[in-house]
Specification:
CATH topology of the largest domain: Rossmann fold
Helix content: 25-40%
Number of helices: 10
Radius of gyration: 21 Å
Distance between the termini: 38 Å
Number of domains: 2
Bound molecules: NADP nicotinamide-adenine-dinucleotide phosphate
Oligomer: single chain
Order of helices and strands: EEEEHEHEEHEEHEHEHEHEEHEHH
CATH superfamily of the largest domain: NAD(P)-binding Rossmann-like Domain
CATH architecture of the largest domain: 3-Layer(aba) Sandwich
Number of strands: 15
Length: about 325
Amino acid sequence: MIALRGEVWFPNSKLNYPKKMVHNKKELINGETSLIGVLGYPIQHSLSPVIHNAALTALNLNWCYLAIPCEKENLELVLKSLRKIDCKGLNITIPYKETVLSYCQNVDNIANSIGAVNTLIPAQNAQWNGTNTDIQGFLAPLKKFSNLKGKNALIMGTGGSAKAVIQGLSSLNLSHITIISRRKNSLEKFIELVKVTKSKSTTCIGLIEGDSLIKEYIKNSHLIINTTPIGMLNKSENQKIQAIPLSEEYWENLSPNSILYDLIYNPKPTEWLKLGSKYDCHQIDGLDMLIEQGAASLRLWSNIENIPINIMKKAAENALKK
Ligand code: NAP
């Protein structure tokens, strides 16, 4: 018998996960509760515990998802220890998505291709296997738009999330990809990655912020993605910060119906997405990507196909309102 969140369940061999029997609803954590969580530093502002625990409750799964702060010098020890205590799965976030590769027994092709792991799955001999669900998460909200094949995309930023984005875009058979970076060094390294990732028929160009060609590429792009942190909520009111990537004048030539995709989810929508609505652009904020990558991780850990995405999203939206 397996005790689940607020209920007592019996294993059902066909589904490979437990079947419920009503129990004391108040008993959320008990002696049989298993641990899953997200490892990073700092980690206290993560939305992942909110979205995952909402899903666990809805699934009546007796697991608890915690944000686990871990300093760099303790990473290996913490990973080994969590595996020893039968932690059922981990998300990995900033600053360890790249470092954690060296602590995995196996890393799958997707995670290897971008050199970053965001999900650890228990492996044999007290080891972890690594994968990356950010790509799946990024692509999910684009599914509702008609075929992007042969269209042009533009990406701002060349950091960690941009790597997942470029890998995702490679499956869309785009005609052209423009990459904008503030630094020549980062741009050159990123273009090398794009060259090996993109499909053969896709052309690409890298531009440094301030380049006079940028406005023209914006005008001709069907899909524009912000992977920089510009526009993120800043809690220190005294600090004057940039709210819109590049600057407002760059967006005057936005084509109606183009898709603006901002990876930021707080604020929701960002100033950039609000600006896009003035030009009749479609808008996607970062919340769906966050939920979908989390749901994909939970699917891998639990073997449960139907993850309650809507419940996870509602929980995140409520938390963001606070
Ligand atoms: P990152 O690895 O630090 O990369 C940030 C990129 O933005 C770098 O290319 C950086 O340029 C550039 N950048 C930073 N500040 C800039 C500025 N003021 N002007 C121009 N470029 C600037 O960060 P990340 O992990 O990719 O995350 C980026 C954003 O995506 C964050 O807001 C994060 O919350 C969001 N995100 C959302 C999800 C989701 O699920 N929705 C997932 C991942 C990330 P340099 O290389 O020159 O430093």
